[in-house]
Amino acid sequence: MESSRWDAVPGAGVPSPARTAPSEPVGTPELRADCARCFALCCVALPFARSTDFAVDKPAGKPCGNLGADFRCGIHRDLRRSGYTGCTVFDCAGAGQQVSQVTFGGRDWRADRSVAGPMFAVFPVMRQLHELLRYLQEVVRHPGARAVQEELAAACARVTALTFADADVLLRLDVPELRHEVSELLLRASESVRAGQRGRELRGADLFGARLRGARLRGASLRGALLVAADLSGADLRGADVIGADLRDADLRGADLTGCLFLTQAQVDAARGDAATVLPEGFVRPDHWAAVAPAQQRSGSGGRRGSGGRRGRGARRR
Predict the structure, then answer these.
(1) Is 219 left (phi over 0), alpha (psi -120 to 50) or beta?
(2) pLDDT for position 53
(3) For the chain, what percentages of helix, strand and coil (3-state, to nearest 5) are there?
(4) Cα separation of 279 and 294, whole Å?
(5) What is the distance of C-alpha 7 from the center of its chain?
(6) What is the rounded CA–CA span in Å between residue 126 and residue 123?
(7) What mean pLDDT value characterizes the chain?
(8) C-alpha gyration radius of the chain
(9) Could you report the average pLDDT of every consecutive run of 10 residues in the chain (318 residues)?
(10) What sign results for the dihedral spanned by CA atoms 68, 74, 80, 82?
């Protein structure tokens, strides 16, 4: 999904509520989506194109046809069967409620059309800030990243302050430049953390549909790798850097993802797995994953076994 332009949405160019960027963080933003406190920004602000992920085309700034007056998705429980798989793996990382409740102080874009344009424009910016902050928080206290800990902490403070900034400040922000700076820092942190187990260098590799069953990828760099529909069943991915890796429809049955760096729930949700897939602590095993491992994996010829997180996940509004 791409950022929308101000002139492509209702209320374009209307000033946002008067708030200023704080000189230091005024709190810590939530990095988990709370749809009950968001005005369905992902269903309105972002565009999507008809594809295997979405059943129809929708331009930025136009509410999804499935969005109800209460900001709830009318087909939430049937998204996959209705052709909206893309919605089931989308994660705003808490940006939705931050924009709705903090940046715009709880002002509903339906009730106050003057904030619609700015709100829709700020949302994708905030989403990127939350994404960067989540990555930074993951490694800032990692024992293996001590060499860059001070820089990581400074970056955390800077990005956190931006998440509480005025909408006008956010819309003037050079997001690509900020992402580049943080990305370079995260790369250095990753290299430091993986120093004792550096694996294969597959950064940005095109591994679409690759046969990597049982592959030894411990400590590997899979940053930005295209792993769509790749067979990673039984693979050893412990400690691998998977930031930005595209795992849509990747086969992770029996794979071990213990200690994977920069892995997100959205990546897990987009892949396929089973009861033998080992997930890092805190991750949720998707409902659409197979509940039982294949016979060959249960007999020991596949990947490692493990709980890898609780089963099931609560219903979220889209």
Answers:
(1) left
(2) 87
(3) 35, 5, 60
(4) 17
(5) 27
(6) 5
(7) 85
(8) 20
(9) 31 34 62 94 93 91 92 89 89 96 95 95 98 97 95 97 97 97 97 89 97 97 97 98 97 97 96 96 90 47 37 34
(10) negative
